[in-house]
Amino acid sequence: MVAAGLILAWEATISRNHHVLILVENLPVPFDRRVWQEAQALNDAGYEVSVICPKGKGYDKSYEVIGGIHVYRHPLREAQSAAGYMEEYSTALFHQFRLSLKVRRRRRIDVIQACNPPDLMFLVAGLHKLFFGSYFVFDHHDLGPELYLTKFGRKGVLYKTMCLLERLTFRMADASIATNETFRDIAVARGRMHPGRVAVVKSYPEAKKFQRTGASESLVSRGKHLVGYLGIMGAQDGVETLIRAMVEIQHVRKREDVACIVIGDGPDLGRLQALASELDVNQSVQFAGYLSGASLMSHLSALTVGVIPDPPNEFNDKLSMNKVFEYMMLGLPFVQFNLRQAAYEAKNAALVIDEHSPQALANGILVLVDDPDRRRDMGMVGRAIAEREFQWSAEAGRYLATYRDLLNPRPNANDQRYYPAS
Fold first, then answer.
1. Which residues contact 257 (CB under 8 A, 6 or more apart)?
2. Which of 120, 239, 237 is nearest to 172 (CA)?
3. Distance (Å, rounded) from C-alpha 337 to C-alpha 308?
4. Dist CA 156 CA 150 (whole Å)
5. What pLDDT was estimated at residue 6?
6. Residue 280 to residues 126, 226, 259, 275: CA-CA distances in angstroms?
7. In angstroms, rounded to a whole number, what is the distance separating the alpha carbons of residues 421 and 173?
8. How far apart are alpha carbons 168 and 154 in whole angstroms?
9. Would you say 19 and 64 are in contact if contact means Cβ atoms under 8 Å apart?
10. At residue 421, does pLDDT exceed 50?
């Protein structure tokens, strides 16, 4: 107890009077769960926290204070093409520059944390680092070069530009936060960061907020098994494969006992809804939109099987997917394609399918639908792993240690942990 008290006192001493600005471009806050958890961890530890993010998902106020955290939002139109991404990112960069100066007029910024994509926010952080002495922390969410290659399939000038921007981001960073060990290795190998300046902080949900509840009565149907997807819907997320798997289940296998619910939002939502109607599965595939809180839990608690339809590629193969952690915390068995990082984290809680096709996904779904004992065992495995390993409090501790070491550097010149890049 005495040791814990000393740690908390040290934390408060370091955090007192320090102001952190977090930049995020692809999702609004607090919709972005990882960013919001980080912001709350900093705030609870005594830091003042400001966030700049886009509007959307029901969060449309230009400025508000939520739980002591200052949130500044700007308009943003999501891109659908390579040219559109240039417009989206340049517009976001303009607003981030503008709002960061507005934030600084309110209070000095000690640290700027940028959460990619895109790998352009180092320009904003660089301005404040050069002229005002702010530190820069890179929160490495996505792999920019791999993401571009997955979306557009070519290694032209823009791909090489993405690689350059990633290198410059790491070069500018005083510390980097990786979402898993693969990202840490990339920061060290490709980013040439000192290993001591890279921390792994995984995106685990808070257990008290992610628990099974009573199933939504609107989804419960006698004799029906409900399979489901939770997440963002972009072209690279594979939800189209799930819809085509439902075509296989309903029209080819003639299984009327399986229905599907897709929970989430994204730029591909409208096209996917139209596709479900065109393929005549719109009665068995329901799009619930973005859900949160009790509504999300009641929908997830109605599922028999979870689905991760993301296709195998260089991008998805390296990602730690929130869906994996969320399904396992609920004790929900799930089907996924052979994605290296996701399969490693899921272990025996997932049925891994080697062939990437709607037919193979349909096979996997039906294997679990028709085997309640296997579903029960897989769910128990996932829940046991989650209870043992998925502790956000431990991840928050590692996250805060990054800031402690950055703002209270050790006097030993040979100790490079979280020292500014030379």
1. 223, 224, 225, 369
2. 120
3. 7
4. 13
5. 47
6. 52, 18, 13, 8
7. 7
8. 22
9. no
10. no
CATH fold match for the domains 2-204+391-407 and 208-389: yes
Q: Please report, as a single letter, which amino acid is at residue 57.
A: K
The answer, yes or no, to whether the previous bond of 117 is cis (omega within 30 of 0) is yes
> Do the Cβ atoms of 227 and 304 come closer than 8 Å?
yes
Residue 220: per-residue pLDDT: 81
HSE, side-chain direction, 13 A CA sphere, residue 388: 7
Q: What per-residue confidence (pLDDT) applies to 235?
A: 82
Contact of 262 with 287, CB cutoff 8 Å: yes
* Cβ proximity of 251 and 278 under 8 Å: no
Q: Summarize pLDDT for 59-69 with one digit per residue, the tens.
A: 999 999 999 99
CATH of span 208-389: 3.40.50.2000
Helix (H) or strand (E) holding 137: strand 135-140
Identify the DSSP state of 248: I
**In a 3-state reduction of DSSP, which class is residue 188?**
helix
d(CA 212, CA 205): 13
Return the CATH architecture of domain 2-204+391-407.
3-Layer(aba) Sandwich (3.40)
Region of 220 (left: φ > 0; alpha: ψ -120 to 50; beta: rest) is: beta
Q: Are the CB atoms for 322 and 33 separated by under 8 Å?
A: yes
Structure tokens, 135 = 């530190």
Would you mind telling me the total number of residues written for the chain in this entry? 422
Residue 139 pLDDT greater than 90, yes or no: yes
- What does each C-alpha distance from 183 to 39, 176, 330 come to in angstroms? 21, 10, 26
CB atoms within 10 A of CB 237: 23
Residue at token pair 């557009």: 152
Residue that the structure tokens 């040979």 belong to: 414
The CA-to-CA distance between both ends of the chain, in Å, stands at 39
Contacts of 266 (CB under 8 A, 6+ apart): 232, 233, 234, 237
Boundaries of every domain in the chain: 2-204+391-407, 208-389
* 218 compared with 146, residue with greater pLDDT: 146
Asked if residue 221 has pLDDT above 50, the reply is yes
